[in-house]
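Slide 14.
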Amino acid sequence: MIKTLARSIREYKWTALGSPICMVGEVTMEIFIPLVLAELLRQGIEPGYMPAVWKYGGLLALCALCSLAFGVASAFFAAHASTGFARNLRHDMFAKVQTYDFSNIDKFSTSSIVTRLTSDVANLQMTFQMSIRMIFRTPVMLVMALVMAFRISPRLSVIYCVMLPLLALGLMLLIKLVHPIFERVFKIYDRLNNVVQENVRGIRVVKSFVREAAETEKFTETSDTIYKDFVKAERIMAFNNPLMQFAVYACIIVISYLGAKQVVGGEIDTPALTAMFTYTSQILMGLMMMSMVFVMFTMSRAPMRRAYELLTETPALKTPENPVTDVKDGSIDFENVSFRYAKTAGRNALDHINLHIDAGMTVGILGGTGASKSTFVQLIPRLYDTTEGTVKVGGTDVKDYDIHALREQVSVVLQKNVLFSGSIKDNLRWGNPDATDEEMEHACRLACAHDFIMSFPEGYDTHIEQGGTNVSGGQKQRLCIARALLKKPKILILDDSTSAVDTRTDALIRKAFKEEIPNTTKLIIAQRVASVQDADLILVLDGGKIAAMGNHEDLLRSSDIYREVYESQVKGGEE
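Slide 15: predicted structure.
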């Protein structure tokens, strides 16, 4: 897991190495300071010899300045490397999400992905920054200080051999108690983000149903849960500081008592005992820093695992080794196709579909809610893979195509129309980044969008708010259709994409399709019979199967479902 995350360091590896190297320099200077101080006391201050005072005093000041310089450099390198690591990690995670197919995205909730890319990465950045400084500083400090302490007095240094295992045992116990709490907290963060996203996205619904108080209560309840868990974790981790303080003062008291006896007995002198106290503080401060690193690692274990999950998720759909890159035409074949969303699903969403569609045909698709109309068309651009059977486009199995090449030739206007923040031109160029103004205008005329665009003061440069909230549902649908047309695809799929436009505009769009893109295969999912009755072929789906197929007149004679839908809509219109 750490190896996978460490790949995001990349160009910052030398900067990351610079921090611990400078940290070793800082620690070395700190280790020399007590020795120099002891010599200052022994050779300068006690005998009152001023040349030695100036000599060792100057050396002491030089060591302090060097220690400061190394410390500043280490902090700079650590900050630079950690921010770079966070940037790369965030980029790698986002880029990985872009490779996911629909089944992978279904596995992770939107709020969970947002949390992993924001809060989790920020947590890992802080941990990385502390780690490259403290993980190297603490062992070097401990080893060097222990060596110097044993060099001064092996008998006094035995106290460390007793205290260090006790501290390690206490830290392990704290980590064991607090880790499950942090695991739970980050899952609740996902839930909190989900509440915020749902509320902001659906703010108009919230206000229209006067649900502000209920939504606030739901947010407060989730937020309070996070607060209580963090308080509980902090209460446990609060024992860390008293434990360290106990170890520090216990060592100082024991060394003071035994050291004083050794000074009186002539085993060591006062400067050596002074240095011993300094090394005691350094050893135990090093342990305190190590405990802080352990706390950070404990908090970061959950974010590390969550980031690792996102980075190592394997896309279910892959381009084959020698893919086909040219889509011959817009013909479509379903050969004994069955599909289910999960292996554990109770039944197939599509069941043994067999169908041939010639290139250039207009195919209407009708069916009740849950008839798997959207699932049916999503297999064509390979947004999902079939569970059984084969889907062919242009006579070739869609699994043999380069995924990007296939999707360039299959334009899908999904049921949930999405516009992105930016100008109308920016949104249209999603279909073709190199589209000229004339090409965009032509596509918008086909989609009956040009007139309403020109009614805006800024025309095609009009800014679209996030999610297209400043245009109507029908306008949004027509812009999405125009965007799909700019790809000049061999297959155009409209998944109930004219439901928000009036029947006259719907008819004009279909007329434009027939006249302007006759060689493009058009699949139109609709709820209105009027939207598909002129189609070359109409499919009636029911329960994931093709219940009937034919043209309008054939289905009126042979399909009870189609006739019932048609009559209910015609009678409803007459009434």
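Speaker note: The mean pLDDT is 81.
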